[in-house]
């Protein structure tokens, strides 16, 4: 559930910290005080549309952070989504989600400190929070969601059969796909075979082994280095050879002079030593050049093999392992093609058996759903009667799918909820009848009766009581209270009955400081709660109104 919401520089909010608790949390305040900005902030956290217009005037960014306690969350789909997304959960079971909107229109979302994209943000928060408003089109009004709600109402028996059906449906789809491949035209099958043979032959001919890519690049680097060494050594050898030749000539001249004059004997010996050293160095360089394996053909061969590998990677995989794996799959498919006739007959038999099992499971599921639907219809009509819609009709409609689209993920029937508020008028799709205050009561009735089946921990109702008063308002307050027994409920309201029955009351107001306006939020104690309910009842806090407010609050205890 949501345990903390901090909002900074968001619209007219400078800084607000909202800390709801379990049960029914009600937010009230004068019109224009900024109550619904709390809902807008939560919608932003849930991946709602962002705009630089959300930023408080004069500021560079708006920031919203929500802290959820998910320590008791057991929904396997939610936990799998977190696991698949590599979201790390704090040791205390907290999920901290933030979103920042900048004045250049850029927005950044984070979950437990890690940046995430908006798509993932929406996936994760959809399990945590559900927002309902007066003109809200939540999934409860979506025909595609009705079958899921009915199955949850029907209980574990329906969900177990549905799981068996869906597992079998995956086998059925795979078998249909395999048959389609086998039933392709002879020309297409021929083209497929030629393609598979080409792939296998091309990869086999290349014959790349795991780790060879690293070896090729290492050999290329070494060969290119040796080539550079050889070129430099050749230049050095030429220079040493030239110096050796020059020193030999110089030594010969000085030796000739020394033979006639002993004073030049030392010079002659030194020149001879220089000549011998240079000749030795030249010979050593020559030997090193011959030792270096600088085979241009070898370099060309390495480059050619690297080029071949890049070509294969562009077509079959990002690594040698993926390329060879792709070849193995093609080889297996070739083997399967060779057994087409026998395999086709087997697949036909498999498909027939799977179809029979699917029909049996779908029939079983339909029977369970029909029994549950009559109970659901009566329960919701009873709820609507409490909400001052005494002549309501609520029908769960079943429609068998056409043979060309017979098997869907939820069975062989489409299910939708129909509703009529007035006698004599036939029930119509729920989505077509939901408008204004009537829509609010329909939604609350369905939510209340299915509340134990709905796994969303936090439900938000934003002024769903607009246009409702009297007994209907009492009914809505009762339903919200009932729902809050199994869910954390946040409700923005103008209705005193709802404020009176709240477990926790928060009052939004405006404060003015140095020509600036800002929304503030105060958690009400018992005295302030009575004063706020009094204001909502009569607009004043005189003794008579305060007494009436206290009586209303006491009636919900």
Describe the structure.
Among the domains are: 118 residues; 33 residues, no CATH class. Helices cover 56% and strands 18% of the residues. The relative contact order is 0.13. The model has no long low-confidence stretch (mean pLDDT 85).
Quick summary of this structure?
The chain contains 17 helices and 15 strands.
Secondary structure: elements and pairs:
Blueprint: E1 2-10, E2 13-18, E3 24-29, H1 35-45, E4 61-69, H2 76-84, E5 94-102, E6 107-111, E7 114-116, H3 118-125, E8 129-133, H4 143-154, H5 156-182, H6 186-206, H7 212-258, H8 265-291, H9 296-316, H10 320-338, H11 340-386, E9 393-400, E10 413-420, E11 428-429, H12 430-433, H13 436-449, E12 458-462, H14 470-483, E13 488-492, H15 496-500, E14 504-513, E15 516-523, H16 526-538, H17 543-555
Parallel strand pairs: 3-13, 3-14, 8-12, 12-13
Antiparallel strand pairs: 1-2, 1-4, 4-5, 5-6, 6-7, 9-10, 10-11, 14-15
Question: Features of this protein?
Answer:
17 helices, alpha/beta, 557 residues, six-stranded antiparallel β-sheet, single chain, 18% strand
Mean pLDDT: 85
The global form is elongated
Biggest pleated-sheet summary: 6 strands, antiparallel
What is Rg? 41 Å
Number of E-state strands = 15
State the strand order across the main sheet.
2-1-4-5-6-7
Strand content: 15-25%
Uncertain regions spanning at least 5 consecutive residues: none
Structural class: alpha/beta
Summed up, the helix count is 17
Helical fraction = 55-70%
Query: How far apart are the termini?
Result: 24 Å
